[in-house]
Design brief:
With 294 residues, the protein is α/β, with parallel strands linked by helices. It has 9 helices and 7 strands. The protein is elongated and about 80 Å long.
Length: 294
């Protein structure tokens, strides 16, 4: 109240002020260790100043003695580049990309934003538009993929955010290998040979196209094991599972198939990840589940 009524000129506080506190005479904001905050939080904090007629300034401070992560640099760069009125949309799109869009489909982000993912976001928007148009929409099967895979569209490959988001949307909606091939061919034609991260992204789309028709709704890594759900295995398939993947188990009560995660070698090897892991999971599905009842 002292600050609001101008009895003091400075207010030291926590981030509670980003909850919508409106103080018209506040014109300068200083955020300590801004590199540790999220992009949306920084944008909200920035909005606490400049709410009156006075010109406002925001200073985002970070320690010169500590290395900054690439994600933190992207957040601060986004804020610095988007200072005009109405820039919130660009900040929101960048925040979506940093927190989730890339791993729609990836180890850290798929099934997240946390636990939403860009593909689900796209579908929700599509459902809202269909409802607005009065169109009936069949419920779409969901599949969560949580594997240690670095899968995204780098800015160095597709520089414009709008085009990256469109490519993510098309890959999220692809349900056949032909549709995925079409997206990959267009990306290659427009931007050149895809880097490793994009190849991983395409491989996850192919895994999704393979797993959805079988009825899977989850493929996840948990420690040293890979979990698939829901699975219904007849006795003959259980024998095949045990023979081809020693240590694997099938839990009929919960309809889970749990398989030891693959490694580069049987003794002392490192866990497979990225493209090698995706190919391994695809082979597992084809070998054990492709003809199993849903």
């Amino acid at each position: 109240m002292d600050f609001l009524e101008r009895r003091i000129d400075g207010l030291v506080c926590t981030t509670i002020v980003d909850s919508g506190i409106d103080i018209a005479n506040a014109n300068t904001l200083i955020v300590d260790r801004a590199d540790t905050y999220g992009l949306s939080q920084l944008h909200q904090l920035r909005g606490r100043v400049g709410r009156g007629r006075d010109r406002a300034y925001s200073y985002f401070m970070y320690s010169p003695d500590k290395s900054m992560t690439q994600t933190a640099f992207d957040r601060l760069s986004t804020l610095a580049a988007n200072t005009d009125l109405g820039a919130g949309m660009q900040v929101a799109m960048k925040d979506l990309e940093i927190r989730g869009a890339g791993n729609l489909l990836g180890g850290e982000q798929s099934g997240h934003i946390a636990d939403v993912g860009f593909d689900l976001y796209v579908r929700l928007v599509g459902e809202a538009l269909s409802e607005f148009k009065g169109e009936s929409l069949e419920p779409e099967a969901e599949l969560t993929i949580q594997l240690p895979v670095d899968a995204h569209l780098p800015e160095s490959y597709v520089s414009e955010e709008r085009l990256r988001l469109e490519a993510y949307r098309r890959l999220a909606g692809a349900r056949t290998d032909q549709q995925i091939d079409d997206v990959l061919a267009e990306l290659t034609d427009r931007y050149g040979p895809p880097p490793t991260e994009v190849a991983n992204l395409v491989a996850i789309s192919r895994l999704r196209a393979l797993a959805l028709p079988i009825g899977l709704d989850e493929i996840s890594a948990a420690g040293t094991r890979i979990r698939l759900h829901p699975v219904e295995l007849p006795e003959s398939r259980r024998v095949r599972l045990a023979r081809l993947y020693p240590g694997a188990s099938y839990r009929a009560a919960t309809r889970q198939m749990i398989v030891p995660a693959p490694t580069t070698k049987k003794v002392g090897g490192q866990p497979l990840r990225d493209l090698e892991l995706l190919h391994w999971v695809a082979d597992l599905i084809r070998t054990v589940l492709a003809e199993a009842p849903r």
